[in-house]
Design a protein that fits this description.
The structure holds three protein chains of three kinds.
Chain A (H helix, E strand, L loop, with lengths): L15 H28 L4 H4 L13 H7 E5 L2 H5 L7 H8 L2 E6 L2 H32 L5 H10 L5 H15 L5 H26 L2 H9 L4 H12 L1 H17 L2 H6 L7 H4 L11 H21 L1 H7 L8
Antiparallel strand pairs in A: 1-2
Helix pairs in contact in A: 1-15, 3-15, 6-9, 6-12, 7-9, 9-12, 10-11, 12-16
Chain B lengths: L21 H14 L2 H8 L3 H31 L18 H8 L1 H32 L6 H9 L6 H12 L5 H10 L15 H26 L3 H9 L4 H29 L3 H7 L10 H11 L3 H31 L1
Helix pairs in contact in B: 1-2, 3-14, 4-14, 5-9, 5-11, 7-12, 9-11, 11-14, 13-14
Chain C lengths: L1 H23 L8 E7 L2 H17 L2 E7 L1 H13 L7 E5 L3 H6 L7 H7 L8 H8 L11 E4 L3 E6 H4 L2 H11 L9 H11 L3 E2 L2 E2 L1 E4 L8 H13 L19 H17 L9 H9 L3 E7 L3 H5 L9 E4 L9 E2 L3 E5 L6 H12 L1 H10 L6 H4 L4 H4 L3 H8 L2 E2 L7 H16 L6 H19 L4
Classes of the chains: A mainly alpha, B mainly alpha, C alpha/beta.
Amino acid sequence: MSQGISTAHSVVEPSDTSRWIAGFLVALYAIITITPLAWIILTGFKNPADAISYPPKVIFTPTTQGYCNLFTTRSRQTPEYIAALPATEAHCEQIARADNTVVAGTSNYIPRFVNSLIIAFGSTILSVGLGVMAAYAFSRFKVPLKDDLLFFILSTRMMPPIAVAIPIYLMYRELGLSDTRTGMILLYTAVNISLAVWLLKGFIDEIPREYEEAAMVDGYTRLQAFRKVVLPQATTGIVATAIFCLIFSWNEYAFAVLLTSGEAQTAPPFIPIIIGEGGQDWPAVAAGTTLFLVPILVFTVLLRKHLLRGITFGAVRK
Amino acid sequence: MLTHATPGSQAFLCNTANTKPIMTINRTLERAALATPAAMSSRLRGLSDRAIAWLFIGPTMLILLVINIFPLIWTIKLSFTNYRANRPNANVTDVGIDNYVAVLTDPDIWLAMQNTAHFLFWTILLQMLIGFTLAYLIDRKFRGHGFWTTMILIPMMLSPAVVGNFWAFLYQPQVGLFNYSAALLSGVSASSFSMLGSVTLAPWAIVIVDTWMWTPYVMLICLAGLRSIPDYIYEAAEVDRASKWRQFWSITLPMVMPFIMLAVLFRGIENFKMFDMVNLLTSGGPGSATELASITLKREAFEKWRTGYSSAFAIILFVAVFGMANMYVKALNYVKNR
Amino acid sequence: MKTLLKKLLALAGISLATALCLGAAPAQAQDKTITLCWAAWDPANALVELSKDFTAKSGVKMKFEFVPWPNFADRMLNELNSKGKLCDLMIGDSQWIGGSAESGHYVKLNDFFAKEGIKMTDFAPATVTGYAEWPKNTPNYWALPAMADAVGWTYRKDWFAKPELRAEFKKKFNRGLAAPKTWTEFKQVSEFFQGRVVDGKKVYGAYIYTERGSEGITMGVTNVLYPMGFKYQDPKKPYAMDGFVNSADAVKALEFYKSIYKGSTAPGMTNAYMGEGLDAFKSGQVAMQMNFFAFFPGLNKDPVVGGDKIGFFANPSDKGKGVQLGGQGISVVAYSPNQKEALQYIKWFADPAIQKKWQAVGGASAHNAVLNDPGYAESAPYAPAFMESMNMVVDFWAEPSYAELLQAMQKRVHDYVIADKGTAKEALDALVVDWKKIFKEDGKLK
């Protein structure tokens, strides 16, 4: 097993003052960088007029109108029409009526969110799965042209998405993959595999071959050794890679906006175009952004220990 | 002896030495296999290594070939024609290298490359400096560092397009937070400057947003590097009475350098292709002050529909990144082997 | 570790299976459903409501695909160019007519109109030329005028009514403070308000279009160019642009637009189009706002700046009159498998009764039955300005190559007005060079 993952490297433990200063500076940086995000989260709770108030309002009365607007479509009606409607208990309907609108239906946000979940998790699993296998092979076997193949894999990341969008769009149309979740999953997998293979090869290189060799001498086949010996040891690396791949697929925009429309569109192309009465509905956009951040945040926080441990790239010592 | 390290692979980043050469182990197994009765020996081997290698690498290569190579070849073919996607029925003729010549002599293209170079240089420099500093400070392991680290990581988890969109809101001089805070902190009037409106400030506006987003990424990688330096090296330095400063310059920095260079490689490739964040933030404006290469590419391909021309531009961009990455990776190997 | 791994693998398997199943399964409705594609804005929401009547009458269900303006052209033109079947009906921008007609994206409607007795003379002439005809001024129809629109202006009537401001203005300019009729008057009013403190806040004179990415600044600057004498080409010689695009009048007009931008607008409006204008006006930053009439019903009802506080006026004139045409026509996509039902929709939409309803729910009908109705001028506070505007509309090029012509103008105008590059004359001269190149590539010029 891995011996002593190196934690502090400064032999003379940093003095209390230097610790305190470090803590202060890092906290300061964290606060400064979180402030824009906090502002956006707050904007999700403002009403549209407050959101664009000039000068910006720091103190305001919170409302859930932004979230309601995010999940519904509304149409403007005359006050008489609204007065004539039966009373309603629905929270969002009440807010809409106060503004002389009625709820006309649900918005596309939830379907887009679900698409994001399916496409991002699907492609992450696929790319990490394929990636760990390829990384193992590159790590353990004498593959012809290994260096060149690995560089080729890296080079697939180098083409700007805009450039390959048209050929891929046409190709997908021929294959019937245009605007489908399968198509997007395949596409994101192809993009993420390069990162997955490179990161995972590094992790797997750290795992001493002796363990599998010993297992194989004990009678395991290579495949079994891979499954029972290598994979468990590579778990932290797999988790770290999965997080990076997930973040990319979750947040990807260029391909999503060019290759999807009604069926498979994910949330990133959708959020910046949430329109209110002509202009952007900033509270709804802010609400959409906040909600979209939540799964990634939860996923990362839950796996934080794995991430931070895995980030040491398994500093195994002999 | 370091294992045969491929460019950029993580193997060489950590000082692991495989003490037993591979050949010895394989030979041991082979001898063992040959020595055992046939039935047991095949059980020993299971699926041959060769078959497994193919099985494991095959699907990856297949996906990459189909999704990446095929469009690349198509783009190359298109770049030699005058095809326009908005005239699918028009005559398509072969124009040889005319498109390439046109791209390389177009002043607008050169302007876009300049903007991209400016963006690349400053984002990488700032992210390296701030990212490494943060990693170094976090490595002091003060109380609560786990919490603050997670906080710092959050901007990285957002979608670049969404970030560009709401930073446009934040940069608005009248209703936005940025100018408001600047006014509070420095007394400058909030409406006296406009980050997105001025030709001189806009390039810095995009650098600031990108740095805000991706410094955590660089920080993580540097943190990994810092943590991979074993204690005993520092112990030895202490014994030699090396000063903290000396320790930093001759131990810490050189051993973290490969990690830093890896971060620069990945960030450099990504920022060269940067499109969504800047497009939603400034649309390449004001004028063309923040028009990066990808934005020009999008304009040529999807607004002017000059498909052949934009394909040539895309190939040129690809070759540029490919070439630079190749040289860079060789440099990375050199640093690692030092 | 092992259990975590097992869990991950299980999750992997399930998600992948679900994903592939969901991804591959086509979702097709069994009854007839047709899809209408338009931009995502208020009138589109109104059309959704109105179309329920069509479904009730014909049994054909409606699906809608709305894309917001900044991405609308990219998405839809991509769709048409690749013969996509997403849209059966397309309410495309007026400038797409040339390209769509020549590339066979739209179904030619002459025969259908003749068969169903739909007469183009029932619609305002400017809208027929602008939204339906290609080539222009020939009786070849590719769309039914659906949404009549033009650029107009709103202003803060309550500010203009303040006695102290009225007195000061009268003293300075020797005329009453009112909605400007000429561009000279406009500049006086906008500079009067620029930087003034009204109701405790600093405000600015005007809001004008400056957007770079799609078509914003062009849609703004043409409102000054047209009245001051700019022309796209020699009226007697098509595509002859020297001396018309870059005439002395045009140069003066471009300089004038820049002077408004520099001297009368709020800071930070360097990439602003329709949405930003609404934000700026609704948050009380500007006295006058340039925007499309399509937004005026919503603005009129706005709780903060609507009702008594808002007034409307048509685009100011100068030597002549002119205003940028907006609006769209509704067409049948040639690649649609549901053309019969799509044509049914067009027939239903062309009915004068439906057109009146369309006007009432928030659309802008182009039908004479609505425009010539005696009550029209009083129907809404912006109606008189709208009628005035529709009589002086001019459209941008609707050529097949319109997108490149537009991009060239976007670049040259934005570089000069916002990024301070060169002079107005240089910008327009460069634009003529750009446009000549495009027309040459297109075969329209030798």
